[in-house]
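Milestone M4 deliverable, item 7.
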Amino acid sequence: MPIEPQSGLPGELLLLFTVIIWMLFIIIRLGNPQNVLNRWCFISGMIFSIGVLKEYLYFTLFPWLSQAFPSLLDESGAMVVYSVLTGFFYYFSMPCALIFSLYFSRINIIFPKIFSWLKVAAFIPGLLMGFLFPYSKTRYFQLHFRPFFPIVTIYNAVYGLILTYLILHTLYKERKEPYYPQKKRVAILVLLPIWYWIISALLVHSLILTHLFKAWQGNFLILLVLLVYFLSAAFRGGIMGTRFRHEIFDWDKDGQMMGQGARCIRHLCKNELSKINWCAKNLASSVSPEENASYADIIFRSTEHLKNCMEKMQYYSQEIRLEKMSCPILPLLHACTDEFSHLYPGISIEIECNPEIILLCDKEAVQEVFNNLISNAAEAMNHSGTLSIKVIPGRRLLELSFSDTGKGIPPEFLPRLFEPYSTTKPTSNGHMGLGLFFCQKVMKKHGGRIAVNSRMEAGTVFSLFFPWKSEQKTKKAIFQKN
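Output delivered:
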């Protein structure tokens, strides 16, 4: 049968439509090729682009090819290619989008044991649809089998409802997180074109609203706006942020961080070198052994301070390699708090923890995280107040909360809290803004996350969430052995 004439957008605009989709999702992919969210967002977008590409091929390119090169492609061949592309698009675009939403909602962390099975299960309905409506005949079913569109609509709408619930539920749970605005932008980027397509293409065809058959092409404007929106967000502060952040989208961010790091080091060195220079001048003119010893002591402390700061900067900035082991949590906390109890006698430290709780983690890295949070709490309370540490075991996550009675963190500072070299404290005291950046790196390496909740003059709560398997749960014999 001859290829039907195309209405709606001309072929050139359909090709441009396809290129815009490719541009948007290639930019996302190149932003961070190692990030699994970027990867599945790219895969989903490229499969969705087939929906537009097949229209251009079938209604514009194939008629020209069949006339210019009749031996290369006839009408039946064009029909088969169109049908296969349509079937692949209808059956597998939403399963890929669903896998993206699973990663978005951290199902891989919350339910690690069943996650791989969920990924496989997501594609099984698509394979069954391919048996029910073979790929090579989807064009025939579109034109001659009325139940086809209602079935395909229900199939894709069910996927759409599930992924929408996962994304919106995650946004609600993480609405107080500093990266929430970025995740909200990603939700808009994903959900808007998906639901427009389900309603304007599948539902319209199911209801046989003939005059609206080409309404799906309105996605051309939506994708164009989303491309501009994506680029604008990337320059304003980023998009595709949490298990995805600033380092994956802003090409100039590293330069900014280097600039902040250079200013931090310059300020730190300037203060200490001024002390050393002052002492050296006095040493040159002093004849008193007591004065010389005092000046030498200042020089010694300054050089040790510089040495310690440089070592900490190197340690916090380098790539973290975990050496996981089974660690009882309570002794690990006591090892940190006992030292601070001597340093800050004005701080009361309260710990609520089942002594049998064991966590699989890198002991040294996690202990450094604890030290950072406890030290920050001590300074926030001006060395006087109460620090409450609670260990809360859940079904899939182990939460450790560090709650202080300090002055709180200014709201405008919260979005930048985990950025390197970002600090409200004076760098002359050795604060370089790397502590919380390091904590976040450690938690990400463990497959967990760090969250903060703070109110001015009411204190701050930092919460660490570790993946926690049932076999990590407490065993008294192991604890006693350790």
